TrEMBL record:
<dbReference type="Pfam" id="PF00589">
    <property type="entry name" value="Phage_integrase"/>
</dbReference>
<dbReference type="InterPro" id="IPR010998">
    <property type="entry name" value="Integrase_recombinase_N"/>
</dbReference>
<dbReference type="InterPro" id="IPR011010">
    <property type="entry name" value="DNA_brk_join_enz"/>
</dbReference>
<dbReference type="InterPro" id="IPR004107">
    <property type="entry name" value="Integrase_SAM-like_N"/>
</dbReference>
<feature type="domain" description="Tyr recombinase">
    <location>
        <begin position="115"/>
        <end position="330"/>
    </location>
</feature>
<keyword id="KW-0238">DNA-binding</keyword>
<dbReference type="InterPro" id="IPR013762">
    <property type="entry name" value="Integrase-like_cat_sf"/>
</dbReference>
<keyword id="KW-0229">DNA integration</keyword>
<dbReference type="GO" id="GO:0006310">
    <property type="term" value="P:DNA recombination"/>
</dbReference>
<dbReference type="InterPro" id="IPR044068">
    <property type="entry name" value="CB"/>
</dbReference>
<dbReference type="Pfam" id="PF02899">
    <property type="entry name" value="Phage_int_SAM_1"/>
</dbReference>
<dbReference type="GO" id="GO:0015074">
    <property type="term" value="P:DNA integration"/>
</dbReference>
<protein>
    <submittedName>
        <fullName>XerC/D-like integrase</fullName>
    </submittedName>
</protein>
<dbReference type="InterPro" id="IPR002104">
    <property type="entry name" value="Integrase_catalytic"/>
</dbReference>
<keyword id="KW-0233">DNA recombination</keyword>
<feature type="domain" description="Core-binding (CB)">
    <location>
        <begin position="6"/>
        <end position="91"/>
    </location>
</feature>
<dbReference type="InterPro" id="IPR050090">
    <property type="entry name" value="Tyrosine_recombinase_XerCD"/>
</dbReference>
Length: 336
C-alpha cells in the first residue's frame, strides 16, 4: 500500500468535513475538541506526516494526554475511543498504516466506574477554607477554591469570569460563554447563568479586588477576575491550586497515609496530585453538590445553580447514602 503524506491539522479538517452529514453538531464539536489535543501533541512532537505514526507513539500520546488533561479513567477512555475512530478513518484514506487503529489502547471501565465516587467532603472543605482564610486570606488560591466550593462551578466557569461579571451590589456572578475570546464554558449558551453569592464570599472577592488582584488584562483586553501578573490564570494553574491545598498536610499537622513529610513525593507544588487525599476541581464540585443536597437544598435549585440536569446529579454527583436520603424524606412526613 502506498501512503499519501498528510499532517494532523489537515487530517482533522478533512475528517470533520467528512463526518458533517453523519454526526450531530454536538458530536462534531466533541470530536473537534478531543482530537484538537492530538493535533497539538503532533505539533509539539514535530510529527509533520501521519504516515510515520506508530503504535508506540500512540501510547505515548495516551500517557501525555492523561497527564496534560488531568483525565480520570472515564475521560481517558472517551478521548482514546475518539482517536481510534479517527485513526480508522485515516486508514481508509491511506493516511496511516493499515490496522494502526487496533493499536490505540483505552482503559476498560465497569458500569460502577462510569460514576466516580471521589469528592471533597464538607468537613475537609471547611478545613481547607478555614486554613486559607487564616493564612492566605483573599489570595488567588483562596478566591479560586472558595468560588468552586460555594458556587459548585466547574473550573472552566471560574476561569471564564471577568471583573465585570461580578456584581457586588446584587451579590452574584454571571457565567458567560465567550469562545471568541478564549473562555468557552461547558454546555455553551445553555451553561450561561447568574449565580448568587454569600456575604462571606463577597467579602473575600471585594478584598481580593481591592488589595491583591494585579491590574492586568488578558490577550483579548478583558479583565479576568482571577488574574496573575501575566494575565488570566489558566485552568491548569487553577487545578494545581486545588491539588495543592487539598493535601491534608497543608491544613493539619498529620498525614493520614503515614508518610514521612521529608521524603513524600507529593510535597512539591508540581507533584501535589500524587497525594492520595488530594482532589481535582471536579471532586470539589461533586462534594459541594452532595453537601447542598444533604443540607436540604431542593434538587431543582442545585440543578440550576450547578448547571447540571437532575438525572446527571443522581447518576454522577449525589453521594448521599440511601439511609441519608431516607432520613431526609422522614422530615417531610406528618405525624400520623
Amino acid at each position: 500500500m502506498s501512503l499519501e503524506p498528510i499532517d494532523a491539522e489537515t487530517a482533522l479538517e478533512l475528517y470533520l468535513a467528512d463526518k458533517e452529514n453523519e454526526l450531530s453538531e454536538a458530536s462534531i464539536k466533541g470530536h473537534k475538541y478531543r482530537l484538537g489535543h492530538f493535533v497539538r501533541w503532533c505539533d509539539e512532537k514535530e510529527i509533520e506526516n501521519l504516515n510515520t505514526l506508530t503504535g508506540r507513539q500512540l501510547h505515548r500520546y495516551r500517557l501525555w494526554r492523561r497527564e496534560d488533561g488531568d483525565l480520570n479513567k472515564v475521560s481517558e477512555k472517551t478521548q482514546m475511543d475518539t482517536l481510534r475512530v479517527f485513526i480508522r478513518w485515516l486508514e481508509s484514506i491511506d493516511g496511516v498504516e493499515q490496522d494502526l487503529s487496533q493499536k490505540v489502547l483505552s482503559p476498560s471501565i465497569t458500569p460502577d466506574e462510569n460514576s466516580r465516587d471521589v469528592m471533597l467532603d464538607s468537613d475537609s472543605a471547611s478545613k481547607v477554607l478555614a486554613h486559607l482564610e487564616k493564612y492566605k486570606y483573599a489570595s488567588i488560591q483562596h478566591v479560586a477554591i472558595a468560588l468552586m466550593w460555594h458556587t459548585m462551578m466547574r473550573v472552566g466557569g471560574v476561569h471564564a469570569l471577568d471583573i465585570d461579571d461580578y456584581d457586588p451590589d446584587d451579590q452574584c456572578v454571571k457565567v458567560r460563554h465567550r469562545p471568541e475570546s478564549g473562555t468557552p464554558i461547558k454546555n455553551q449558551g445553555k451553561g450561561e447563568r447568574m449565580v448568587a453569592l454569600s456575604d462571606q464570599l463577597c467579602d473575600v472577592l471585594d478584598d481580593w479586588l481591592a488589595e491583591k488582584r494585579p491590574s492586568v488584562t488578558d490577550e483579548y483586553g478583558r479583565e479576568p477576575l482571577l488574574a496573575s501578573r501575566e494575565g488570566r490564570t489558566n485552568k491548569t494553574t487553577l487545578r494545581a491550586y486545588v491539588y495543592r491545598w487539598t493535601r491534608p498536610c497543608t491544613y493539619s499537622a498529620e498525614c493520614p497515609h503515614d508518610r514521612d513529610l521529608g521524603e513524600c513525593s507529593a510535597l512539591e507544588r508540581d507533584t501535589a496530585y500524587r497525594c492520595p487525599s488530594s482532589v481535582s476541581p471536579h471532586a470539589i464540585r461533586r462534594g459541594s453538590i452532595t453537601h447542598s443536597l444533604n443540607s436540604d437544598m431542593p434538587d431543582k435549585v442545585v440543578s440550576d445553580r450547578a448547571n447540571v440536569s437532575q438525572r446527571v446529579i443522581e447518576q454522577h454527583y449525589d453521594r448521599r447514602t440511601e439511609r441519608e436520603k431516607m432520613e431526609q424524606r422522614r422530615e417531610y412526613l406528618s405525624d400520623l
